[in-house]
Amino acid sequence: GAGVSQTPSNKVTEKGKYVELRCDPISGHTALYWYRQSLGQGPEFLIYFQGTGAADDSGLPNDRFFAVRPEGSVSTLKIQRTERGDSAVYLCASSKDTDTQYFGPGTRLTVL
Amino acid sequence: AQSVAQPEDQVNVAEGNPLTVKCTYSVSGNPYLFWYVQYPNRGLQFLLKYITGDNLVKGSYGFEAEFNKSQTSFHLKKPSALVSDSALYFCAVRDGSSNTGKLIFGQGTTLQVKP
Known about the structure:
The complex is a heterodimer.
Chain A: E1 5-7, E2 10-13, E3 19-24, E4 31-37, E5 44-50, E6 53-56, E7 65-68, E8 75-79, E9 88-95, E10 102-103, E11 107-111
Parallel strand pairs in A: 2-11
Antiparallel strand pairs in A: 1-3, 3-8, 4-5, 4-9, 5-6, 7-8, 9-10, 9-11
Chain B: E1 3-5, E2 10-14, E3 19-21, E4 24-26, E5 31-38, E6 44-50, E7 56-58, E8 64-68, E9 73-78, E10 87-95, E11 104-105, E12 109-114
Parallel strand pairs in B: 2-12
Antiparallel strand pairs in B: 1-4, 3-9, 5-6, 5-10, 7-8, 8-9, 10-11, 10-12
């Protein structure tokens, strides 16, 4: 079946701009996660949704980052006033409840 | 606080030889442990997990891992390495006693298998 998909695969933006990254989870998966992976590092947790609500947003670095999942399926990660330090690969994962997480291919964000 | 350590940045083995990629963890509750593999420009692929039960768990592509509670380790192993196993490997831990699913990842270990 279809895996987790993320769009766009690459995003280049200028410092100060707003970006949205989209994640389509595996059908039927109630849990959805966002992680950020910087070059040479392991993924770092950002936020976890159970259904429509953010059950744990302790990994969001500051209030420029926000994520939504209005219908309990697709999620959008929103970054305001982007900074060069936001450049990274943003990974989305989904799972049934809190079981094994399956990852999408990621969105590579470059802030110039 | 949860943490994962992968002490080796890179592991080099010859094809056909056994391989081990090391991982140690720290978690306050019950450890749920995972191994993922990442190929260049691709997302993470799940290999195997330990939740409970037998300490030796078997996963995809002939990989296995052994949970050792006293040493807080979860080393990844394969009896005979293939060149195609060359990739970046991540160990991750979750606190099974909490209701958050967040994973804490190690820094990753690059496995290089030479013909």
